Amino acid sequence: YEELQQTAGRHGDDLRNTKHEISEMNRMIQRLRSEIDNVKKQ
Question: Region (Disordered): which ranges (predicted)?
Fold first, then answer.
Protein backbone atom coordinates (compact mmCIF):
# COMPACT_ATOMS: atom_id res chain seq x y z
CA TYR A 1 0.00 0.00 0.00
CA GLU A 2 2.84 2.38 0.86
CA GLU A 3 4.42 1.55 -2.47
CA LEU A 4 1.18 2.52 -4.21
CA GLN A 5 1.19 5.88 -2.43
CA GLN A 6 4.79 6.53 -3.46
CA THR A 7 4.02 5.61 -7.06
CA ALA A 8 0.96 7.87 -7.06
CA GLY A 9 3.05 10.69 -5.62
CA ARG A 10 5.66 10.22 -8.32
CA HIS A 11 3.01 10.33 -11.02
CA GLY A 12 1.63 13.50 -9.47
CA ASP A 13 5.07 15.11 -9.59
CA ASP A 14 5.52 14.02 -13.20
CA LEU A 15 2.14 15.55 -14.04
CA ARG A 16 3.06 18.84 -12.38
CA ASN A 17 6.40 18.93 -14.19
CA THR A 18 4.70 18.17 -17.50
CA LYS A 19 2.12 20.94 -16.96
CA HIS A 20 4.96 23.34 -16.15
CA GLU A 21 6.85 22.31 -19.28
CA ILE A 22 3.73 22.73 -21.42
CA SER A 23 3.08 26.24 -20.09
CA GLU A 24 6.72 27.17 -20.74
CA MET A 25 6.46 25.82 -24.29
CA ASN A 26 3.25 27.79 -24.82
CA ARG A 27 5.07 30.95 -23.75
CA MET A 28 7.89 30.18 -26.18
CA ILE A 29 5.40 29.56 -28.99
CA GLN A 30 3.69 32.88 -28.32
CA ARG A 31 7.03 34.70 -28.35
CA LEU A 32 7.98 33.03 -31.64
CA ARG A 33 4.59 33.90 -33.15
CA SER A 34 5.00 37.57 -32.31
CA GLU A 35 8.55 37.52 -33.71
CA ILE A 36 7.23 35.95 -36.93
CA ASP A 37 4.52 38.62 -37.14
CA ASN A 38 7.16 41.33 -36.72
CA VAL A 39 9.23 39.84 -39.54
CA LYS A 40 6.16 39.67 -41.80
CA LYS A 41 5.40 43.35 -41.15
CA GLN A 42 8.88 44.49 -42.20
Answer: 1-23
